[in-house]
Structure formats: structure tokens, C-alpha cells
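This entry is passed on directly below:
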Amino acid sequence: MADVNRGNRPLSPHLTIYRPQLTSMTSILTRITGNALLVAALLIVWWFLAAATSPGYFAFVNGLLTSWFGDLVLFLSLWALWYHLLAGVRHLYWDTGRGLEVETAMKLGWGVIIGSVVLTILTAFIL
């Protein structure tokens, strides 16, 4: 029989007291960076197609990708690449059944965040 008092109860009472955890947020960010990398790959393919099309069209696309906005997008794509790689390695490590303790998982999460920033800066300024 249907519960007539259903409308008086909150739908998800846990949402009012839930605190996002570092491991869940970094896992969600892994999925977001994966999708962002697809957009970056499409931009690079667009650049190659413009190079194969005509000098004028290539100049337009190259100007866009080498502008301050293009530099920002490509720099953030570089960070997304490092972040996604490190987070993927972390997930592979978890798949072996290791590193699942709360303290270790927190260290791995901070390692992914700090490591991706450091590697992005090193890659951008060395290369």
C-alpha cells in the first residue's frame, strides 16, 4: 500500500549532513578532466585540419590557439593530462586492493593534486 505521508519526509536526509571527501572529489574531477581532454584533442585536430586546408584558415586557427585564451586552454589541458594520468595510476593501485585505508587514500589524493600541479609547471616551463 502506498505511503500517504511520503510528501512530509525529506527525500535525502543524508545530503544535509554529508561532507564531500577528498577521495570522492578527486574521483569526480578525474571524470571531468577526461572529458576536458577530449575537447583539447578536438582543438588539436582542428589545428591539423586547418593546416591541411589552406594557409588563411590555418592562420586564423593558429592565431586563436596561440592567443592568450588559447594559451590558457592549452595550459589547463596540460594540467588535465597530468591530473588524469596520476589519478588513473591511483585507481590502478586501488584496483590491486592496496591503498584503500582512509589515511593512505587521503595521501594519494593530495599526491595526485600536488603532483599534477608540479608536473604541469615543470612541463610548461621546461618545454
